[in-house]
Amino acid sequence: MKKNIKLVLFIPLIIGATGCANLGVEPWERDLLAKDEMSLNASPIDVALDDHIYFSKEASSGGKGFGGGGCGCN
Amino acid sequence: MKTKTKTKTEKTNIKAALTLATAALLGTSNLAQANTVSTDSAQESTWEFDSAFLFYSEVDRVSAGEAIFNAKKTFANDEILNLKLTVDALTGASASGAVAQPEVQTFTRPSGKGQYDIAAGEVPLDDTFQDTRVQLNAQWTQPIAPNYTASGGVHISKEYDYLSLGINGNLAFDFDRKNSTFSAGFSFFQDTFTPEGGIPKPFSSMLIGDSSSPTWDNDFTETRIGSEDTKTTIDILLGFTQVINRRMITQFNYSYSMVDGYLTDPFKIISVVNGSTGLTQDNIYESRPDSRVKQSIYAQSLYHFDSTVLDVSYRYMWDDWEITSHTLDTRFRIPLGDSFGTESYIQPHFRFYQQSAAEFYQPFLIDGDALPTYASADYRIGEMTTFTVGLKYGLLVNNGHDLSFRLEYYRQTPTDAGFDEPGALQEVDLYPTIDAIIAQITYSF
Amino acid sequence: MLLLLKLLILSNENCLNKDRTIRLAKSKGSYGITFNAMASPCEVIIQSTDKQLAAKLGDIIATEVWRIEDKYSRYNQRSVCSVINNNAGHCVAIDEETYLLLNFAEQCYQLSDGLFDISSGVLRKTWSFQGVQSSQGDNDNFPTEAQVKQNLMSVGWRKIDFDQNQIRLANGMEIDFGGIGKEYAVDRAVILAKQLTNSPVLVNLGGDLAVTSSRLHNEPWQVAIEHPDTDSNLTDMIISLKMGALATSGDARRFLIHDGKRYSHILNAKTGWPINEAPRSITVVAPQCIQAGILATLALLQGTQAEQFLEDQEIKFWARR
């Protein structure tokens, strides 16, 4: 089951790597992508607060990015 | 683009005539020049502020409050300064690692100053955890060449018994009409831990007795090996972001992390129980390796439907303590228009997490067995499944300022990692489930 | 940060779109206001993070554009244009704004040697440009010589009498502000925007656009012009605009096929027939939108000489054939 999950989520990576030439948008097609909610780090405050909780309660942390100095909870 | 400079023909200069005609129509004072050097509109660089308060509370256990104040200033040339102040306070009881027993148990506080009793059948919780922490972050981001963005920052965090200093740096490279981005970053942290009561000798027995007795202090010091210790963390992060189409963007990260130094939790103990009766004979301080290497891969996708946005991410982590974990996190933003507040939205959230136990995790030790090199009964590095469900509601108030509320339910379910439970341990709950509530309010202006 | 827009050359003359809502959307560093007017999608972009300012700007501009539409659209029975047309043969009182527009139309008539004539609107009765590419041969709406000659009787700027206070068309005549209305609205919108704020603003009414200034940090606005063949894979053109206006004239959607030949919807006011061999689309840059629009139209009216005409005038343009 775990292997399947990994495969399903990384197929896009493989497809992306091989078919990269067809991906992407022209600069004027960024109307939706420019929205705040389409940012990969939308709600950085929520993420920072959650990361702190889950770092304190679980064994994993980070992996998502540094932005804003990170949690530094190590 | 064709602009040939040719000598004007004898034909009426239409351009000039039109300019006059336009001036007549629109009013001469309103005329502009086309394509000439424009006035450099000096935009006042504005500050953007975010403030948030979070309340976390476990049933019968730890409660925490955390407040964040973030200030961001964007300068000319896309330079950004980000300053963040975080204050959090923790109170309540945490599991000490000892097992529940059919009789009353007595434990010594980590500071050595005092004892506490645990009722029969109850999971031992140490309620001396009360601490306040203050953290400051500063981050500077700026473009250093066309398509290259660099960022660097510092971090300082202080609580009563803990000091953390850190720096980070990151370089991002955009290409293909900024549809793709490679980024590489590192961070370095140096932490110093000065726990109350000092650093316990690994696997030494917890001293139980009377703290007020005259021999107590001496005896207690015997179980300590120092007053403070340090820890160094180095993180490397490689990321790749790709715009798929007008509606979708994805990100893939790989991270490598090395931690060296004192990684043991000085407040956690392990119960040594009788192999047949399951009754605790001794409680000893845990001991963890002095290094940990973690790696993770992370994938995230954002998809914009007609008006809703779906955010799904997955992280797989593995380390040299033999812990592996899966994190699946998904958010779905549903705009509500103006019916429930100006530009309101709701955002349901679901997170699923599963981890395997560390190689040296043991919920208890058997009396008489050889001591392992390392051992810890901390459920947080044991086998565990957690899930979080929540809902966020946001709207605009005042002059278009964001206000949002978030309420979540977090359930941690430690599970049996395959340890036979002798005697009395079969009657008690070795893997109690922990329920918590998360409530947050955020205001941006 | 580059912000690009796509221009759409839309035409749907019969679409009386009375949707008068103004939509506000936030992007990184700017706000976009969209609304419908003059049968076109209209857009205002302000490079500012002040939402209240954006809303106010959108309100002011949309109101002004709708005002001009209501006043000069020939589809609105209560417009000044319709009143003048319905009372051909009689004197109709006009205000200063209408007088200035008529004056401007007069200057264009003279500058174009009579090719640009806002009274040529009646010719549309003879022609019906639906943009239909019928493979079954000719459109039924292709008129005869006689029909065209008949209709031409009702065309002719010289037959219009007007002064500062009133106007009188000859019987059967009609005027149409369609050739200048949208561009005029763009210029008016820019004037109002400059009065309200110093922030960079771009006003785009269905492809005719103008800016108040360059973007922040002296960056140009990036504008993309759609290729006339909407289904072609040819890349659209990107123009960097720091100041001034852009107007595009062309037959991308409105044309007629007859005998395998493609006829543009731009009619020669003197002959009554469509201009031959005009470029598929011309985009002109000028300080004001109304200038750009007239120049683009005048160029198209030159047919094969379109590009030469603009080059002689040292005007910046892009043409697609």
Polypeptide structure, described:
The complex is a heterotrimer of chains A (74), B (445) and C (321). Chain A is built from 2 helices and no strands. In chain A, 42% of the residues lie in helices and 0% in strands. Chain A has helices spanning 2-18, 44-57. Chain A is elongated and about 45 Å long. Chain B is mostly beta strands and 445 residues long. Chain B contains 2 helices and 25 strands. In chain B, the strands form 5 sheets. Chain B has a 16-stranded antiparallel β-barrel with strand order 1-2-3-8-9-10-11-14-15-18-19-20-21-23-24-25. A 3-stranded mixed sheet of chain B has the order 17-16-22, with no helix packed on it. Chain B has a two-stranded antiparallel sheet with strand order 4-7. The two termini of chain B are 45 Å apart. Chain C is an alpha+beta fold. Chain C contains 7 helices and 16 strands. In chain C, a hairpin with a 2-residue loop joins strand 13 and strand 14. The longest helix of chain C is centred in the first third of the chain and has 22 residues, at 51-72. The radius of gyration of chain C is 20 Å and the shape is globular. Mean pLDDT of chain C is 79; it is low at 1-16 and 131-139. Chains in contact: A-B, A-C, B-C. Chains B and C meet through helix 1 of B and helix 3, helix 5, helix 6, helix 7 and strand 16 of C.
- Ranges of chain B with pLDDT <50 over ≥5 residues? 1-10, 35-44
What is the mean predicted local confidence, pLDDT of chain B? 87
Percentage of β-strand residues of chain A = under 5%
Largest sheet of chain A: none
Q: How far apart lie the N and C ends of chain B?
A: 45 Å
Anisotropy-based shape of chain B: elongated
The tally of strands of chain B reads 25
Radius of gyration of chain A: 17 Å
Determine the mean pLDDT of chain A: 71
Number of helices of chain B: 2
| Main interface: chain pair and counts | A-B, 48 and 88 residues
Quickly give the structural class of chain B.
mainly beta
Distance between the termini of chain A: 30 Å
Features:
heterotrimer; B: 445 residues; mainly beta; 16-stranded antiparallel barrel; 4% helix; 54% strand; C: 321 residues; 3-stranded mixed sheet; 24% strand; disordered N terminus
